[in-house]
Hints:
Two copies of one chain form a homodimer.
Chain A: H1 6-22, H2 28-35, H3 40-52, E1 56-58, E2 66-68, E3 78-83, E4 97-102, E5 114-117, E6 133-137, E7 147-152, E8 155-164, E9 167-171, E10 180-183, E11 189-200
Parallel strand pairs in A: 3-5
Antiparallel strand pairs in A: 1-2, 3-4, 5-6, 6-11, 7-8, 7-11, 8-9, 9-10
Chain B binds a DNA duplex through residues 5, 7-8, 27-29, 37-42, 44-46, 49, 58, 60-65.
Amino acid sequence: MKELTIQQKKVLQCIKFYIKKTGFPPTRADICRELGFKSPNAAESHLRALEKKGYISIENGASRGINLTDNNSEKSETIPVIGLVAAGSPTLADENIEKHIPYQESLFLSDFDYFLRVKGLSMKDAGIMEDDLVAIKKTTDVRNGDIVVARIDDEVTLKYFQSSGKQIKLIPANDDYSEIDIDKDTEGFFIEGKSVGLIREN
Amino acid sequence: MKELTIQQKKVLQCIKFYIKKTGFPPTRADICRELGFKSPNAAESHLRALEKKGYISIENGASRGINLTDNNSEKSETIPVIGLVAAGSPTLADENIEKHIPYQESLFLSDFDYFLRVKGLSMKDAGIMEDDLVAIKKTTDVRNGDIVVARIDDEVTLKYFQSSGKQIKLIPANDDYSEIDIDKDTEGFFIEGKSVGLIREN
DNA sequence: ATTTTTACTGAATATATGTACAGTATAAAT
DNA sequence: ATTTATACTGTACATATATTCAGTAAAAAT
């Protein structure tokens, strides 16, 4: 399945919300209203892009003729919550799973694989506090400024990612912590994934 | 639930079948084609009968605006997202509702009534950043240390709550902002609710 | 360097669609 | 006995809606 852009994801999400809410798909104008577009053609082109990528099918000429394809049917799975411990890797091994919480497909703009329970305050200036649940998408495709889950041997941390060539900086959002400089090819160094959202249970 | 006639059952079945097949409800003409009627008004009257008996709801003026009622399909509720503007009150009036997102019962420890879209950084040291969605439970039962939605006339803010007797302090979590001292009985002062959770969409 | 994709605004239009109105006819309820 | 509900045909029409065309602009791919 081809990847969607952020805007396309928003439109797809909007369609799902609309159907859930009303029982029938939105018109182009409805999508514009929900997402703030001023031209129906904005919605139209996004729909055609979603169709091309296989996420929806469109019945030409039919009003509200949008059909979500089987693969993105709303499934209610559960997502594991993994404890981020000072030393220890966040694997999906059973002993590290704190609990499961119900999966809500459309909760964030991106899909994600697990929640990380935050320990410590190394990212407090980014608004990430102790015991927060950070939604992590498993990927190595990270960009400068992304908040990433990085592993160095057994040590796992949540930090800002900043790279220039082979040199990578893992930057905390807290003056009491110092940044980590590391070479991309250092043995035992991995990017486990990146943050795509956050939940605080209070 | 009122009993349906044989023809009404056929029409209801037809609607369900059509949605399962196409992903969206039928038009009057579609129903006519499926059931062999020669006038769209035949379908129309059946739909109005089904609506009257509570099996469907119809959104007037909307094409394919047929919604199977709860007994036919279980759907999750949605929770409104309200923009927190510098001056203006967070009411559930339509004009203030930014969008709706699906309700997940067990998302937070407490139930809640709406999400507040945070503007500004007055609570940044509490890990509440701009554009975060704070889950608000409508209540006046708040305790010291709670993060509350307080209104003073038209001004609505999110602050820490601290009271001693009749004297209430609304304390920001940001040194750039100053705290608000107010008397419990000041006219135009209300506690709208308190924060019970947070979502960051990234 | 050029094409393609993404991401829109804005206007125009054919047609898809809901819906009202005018009938006909039978069965059920009051 | 009269009203109401059921069950349609048939016509008409305003408007809801999909969709095309003409642009602009920036990013990504080739």
